[in-house]
Amino acid sequence: MAYSSSKIVRNLVKLGYERAFRLVLLFISISLVAKYLGPEKFGILNYLTSFAMLFMFFGKLGLDNFLIKEFVGLERSKKDLIHSSFILRICSSVVGYVVLIVSFLIFADVEYRSYTVLLAVYGSVLFFQPFDIVEIWHKSRLNLTYIVLIRNISVLISTALKVAFVYFNKDLIYFISATLVEHVVAAIGFYILNPKFFDLKGKVNWKIIGYLGSNGIILGLISLTTTIFMRIDILMVGNMLGSREVGIYTAATRLSDVLYIVPTLLSQVLYPNLIHYLKNNDNKAQFIYDIHFLVPLFICLMFMFISDLLITFVFGVEFAESSLVFKLHLWSMIFVSMGLVKSKVLLQQNRVRDLLIITVLSAVMNVVLNFYFIPTWGIQGAAYSTLICYSFVGFGSSLLFKSHWEILRKHLLSLSSIFRIGKLIKIIGK
């Protein structure tokens, strides 16, 4: 089932509103918290959250896009699919929380182990991620009005708490708790929106749980290796250089993460149509590739000119060293966007093992490059490593698989899309 361009645009506007709202609030909270805590404590905060992020895949098992595909096709019972995925994710979250705490006590740098309680609080986010099944269902149907409202309310409450904690000079534990509150509020909202989704009295369909679990093993590993790829630089900077450097580095990464919301938004909204185009061998699939190249390119060029002023404005003079890191991360966004559309194409083609191979290779590459780059170039070395690895994931890795060459061809064709903007506008307008 393909959705009309007008419906895509309406949902882009809705999600765009939510992301813009979130972006503004993130700017406010990141700016206030970073200036209040300073580079060292801000570094500790981000080291802890980055370590916890390595284990957040237990809460979702990487099944979000897979479930969207299942809901779009809906070859199985909606009720059984929702109920089974929720049960599976709840059980997985409990396991993930235990593994997180034990792993931190064993593997975290000695400097950070005294903050185990803070990590335990942030790790509780795991228990509320399974409620996102409501969001996944509504995304598959492009019914996003209430989802946007719930997300906006949750981030607004979280941001208000952070502002209050800055005003009252509170410690790190309060800011971590504010992030947890965001997920709690969202989970409550999802429950109110679709309470029947969480009826645990129904009969467990072990066949569907087995089906989801077998896919979740591979997709969960992909999610884990992707997170390692995306967060290991922060942990390695912390272990090699210290908390202050983590604070400087993560100031740039947090700012670039806010901008990465844009290609993520595009990939989420356009995914149902991408599925339709691929199933019907529709040439309009190229439109998806073009949009995923053009939008991040324009954002990159725009922010390159204001990056120095933006860093000092948002974080203060203490974080001025973050500017070059931010510029490198801007160029990485183009490859992030390419990687998003590529991963969804491979998922639709059931090439999840290819995704696993690519993410494992990229994670290993990132660790090796950081091991050599960080001692030589400091935090800038970590940013160079990120740029190289993202370019491999989104672009270079297609050379390794003959079955990916068509994806590579479309990516190469998208490089000339700047000369076809008029045609793209006509497609959107239809």
Structural class from helices and strands? mainly alpha
Number of helices: 17
Rg, nearest Å: 21 Å
Number of strands: 0
Distance between the termini: 17 Å
Low-confidence parts: none
Domains (count): 1
What summary fits the major beta sheet? none
Quote the beta fraction: under 5%
What share of the residues lie within helices? over 70%
Order of helices and strands: HHHHHHHHHHHHHHHHH
The 3D shape can be described as globular
The average pLDDT is 84
Describe the structure.
There is one protein chain. With 430 residues, this protein is mainly α. The protein has one domain (5-429). The protein has helices spanning 5-53, 57-60, 64-73, 78-107, 116-123, 133-140, 145-167, 172-193, 206-240, 243-279, 285-304, 307-315, 322-348, 352-377, 379-394, 405-414, 421-429. Helix 1 packs antiparallel against helix 10 (243-279), helix 9 packs antiparallel against helix 10 (243-279) and helix 11 packs antiparallel against helix 13. The chain is globular. The two termini are 17 Å apart. The model has no long low-confidence stretch (mean pLDDT 84).
